[in-house]
Amino acid sequence: MGNRCRSATSEADGVVILDYVHTTLPFFRLPRGLDERTIVELNNLLTVVRVIPETEKHLEILKGISANNSADEIDFWRSPRAVGHPVDTSLSPKVFDHYHNTLRMHGLRPEVTIRDVQKLINTSDEMNTHALKFHPAQDNFNYGAYHNLHEVTEWMYNLARRYSDMVTIVNISQSFEKRPIVGLKISSGKGNAEKPNFFIEGGIHAREWISPATVIYMTGQMLSQYKIRKKISDIVDKFNWYILPVFNVDGYEYTWTHDRTWRKTRSKHPGSVCIGVDPNRNWNWQWGNVGSSNLPCSNTYRGPKAFSEVEVKGVANFMKKVRMKAFIDFHSYSQRWMSPWGYTEHLPNDYNDQVSMF
Ligand SMILES: [Zn+2]
Question: Ligand 1 mean position to 317 CA, how many Å?
Answer without folding.
Answer: 21
